[in-house]
Amino acid sequence: MKETPSIAASGAKPLEGKTALVTGAAKRIGRQIALELAQAGAHVGITYLSSPAEAEQAVAEIRRLGVRAVAARADLTDAEQIRVGVETIVGELGGLDLLVNNAGFFESTALEEISVEQWDHMFATNTRAPFLVAQAAHPALKSAKGRIVNVGSLGGMHPWATHAHYCTSKAALHMLSQTMAKAWAPEISVNCVAPGMIVQGEVGEAYQYFADKTPMRRNGTAEDVAAAVLFFATGPHFITGQLLAVDGGLGL
After folding, report:
1. Distance of alpha carbon 197 from alpha carbon 80, whole angstroms
2. pLDDT tens sequence across 16-64
3. Among 244, 250, 191, which residue's Cα sits nearest to residue 220?
């Protein structure tokens, strides 16, 4: 059975004239989210850290969809770079209707071996950065009665023994999303998507193991995550404070 095409892929433009910022969108899931939003008609700004060539390619591809695009380099562990990056993108786009906090960090380490530096870096990237980016974007989003979509993780909903710092940072992001939703209502809606096992390209034996465990009998794709983000970006503004697992039932 063929997959149902996304709203954007169907040719509809529910975000026409809107503006969006996607962090960490030079490649992988963030890039796909940015493209999905552009296909839906949004002008898109992206941040990147160490992938300038990929960011340039992403911007070019977004522009080919007939919308404006801009990229800003920003180390999201640096509060000042976040402020400047957000101001640059909001200024270039002329406002902001949607923020997608996608950028994140992932690693596997035995709990007893996690260093203070590893712990702090994980939280600085996965929890502190979304907070600071959202705070910097708040005036523009409030003025536009906009939306925030944070990208959490199935790991923030279930304990993974060899990913304690990652799971904890994402669980904190889930709670931050709900807190933002309550604090910034009614002007801004805030929701969170929690991807499960997401793969791109060739699937190795380890990934096949998870696909076999998943009720939908496959791993997720970047397109699946992007479609979930688009749902929150285009659905009723009244929907806020929600956490949506994009995992094919893996977490059940």
Report:
1. 33
2. 999 999 999 999 999 999 999 999 999 999 999 999 999 999 999 999 9
3. 250
Map 122-145 to HEC letters: HHHHHHHHHHHHHHHHHHHHHHHC
* pLDDT above 70 for 85: yes
In this prediction, residues 187-206 reach a mean pLDDT of 89
Residue 166 known to be catalytic:
yes
DSSP state for residue 220 in the 8-state scheme = B
User: Quick one: which of 170, 222, 201, 203 has its CA closest to 31?
Assistant: 222
Whole-angstrom Cα distance, residue 96 to residue 12?
21
Q: Residue 197 CB: number of other CB atoms within 10 A? A: 18
Q: How far is CA 32 from CA 15, 54, 103, 138, in A?
A: 16, 13, 13, 24
Nearest to 41 by CA among 11, 62, 16: 16
How many residues would you count in the chain? Answer: 252
* DSSP structure class, residue 235: S
Cis peptide, bond prior to residue 186, ω within 30 of zero = yes
Average pLDDT over residues 193-218: 88
Give the burial class of 250: count Cβ atoms within 10 A of its Cβ; 0-12 exposed, 13-18 middle, 19 or more buried.
Answer: buried
